[in-house]
Design brief:
Layout: H1 5-32, E1 36-41, H2 45-59, E2 63-68, H3 70-78, E3 85-87, H4 91-99, E4 109-114, E5 116-121, H5 137-141, E6 146-149, H6 155-166, H7 170-173, E7 177-180, H8 183-191, E8 197-201, H9 202-207, E9 211-216, E10 225-231, H10 240-246, H11 250-258, E11 262-263
Parallel strand pairs: 1-2, 1-3, 6-7, 6-8
Antiparallel strand pairs: 3-10, 4-10, 4-11, 5-8, 5-9
Helix pairs in contact: 2-11, 3-4
Length: 270
Amino acid sequence: MKRTPFLAAARFFAAFALAAAFGFFQAANAQDKQPLTVFAAASLKNALDEVNAAWTKQSGVEIRTSYAASSALAKQIEEGALADLFLSADLQWMDYTEKKNLIRAGTRQSLLGNSLAIVASKDSKIGELKIDEKLDLAKLLGDGRLSVASIEAVPAGRYAKTALTRLNLWASVDKKLAEAENVRAALALVSRGEAPLGIVYSTDAAADKGVKVVGTFPVGSHPAIVYPVGVLESSKNAAAERYRKYLSSGEAQVIFRKHGFTIASGASAT
């Protein structure tokens, strides 16, 4: 049968449209699999690494995580650092980024909770402590220093200062501090024996076999420790919102609890 020019042209355009549609589908699928960049508080590392591995296995989307003090991450975001989500160790630095319109509306939520503890090296002779106004922390330190994250900027350091102040212990130790750039660095000073005691999150203590918890600060001695999460306004990654919801899923919450975190009130995959 003789092929007419019209029929040949129709077939050509049909094939072209099919190829274009296939190419568009491939491009959209590739975009959907672009790696996510997450800025997260240093204290989340062990738990979030495990959560991220589970997410990648399920979704096929790789997570690239930058861990640091929440203050440093917030400043980097403000300066234009490319990231998709921010997980802070306190409300203040999330408030900071949100007020500067750096967090996408409707994506902020409280995710996790934690507690504050005093740690000593695993071989320390210091036993269990009752943390109250009668604790002679200065005597326990001797000539050594109390390891804390930066008390002016880092959430863990601010929580520590607040707790010590409310318990009337601050004046006895404020000249005996060894301040670190983040809570994991403060933990390392104790683990290596460079400081006799340190104040860190309970989850950090559980992540380092070189330390032991000798006391936990009472509820009310510091503000509730809350980890909020939000998608950055600048994110162009289609998977960012799905990942945010996954962080509140039952699967992710099991992992977070395993590492000692509590689940924030109302945290759910919404």
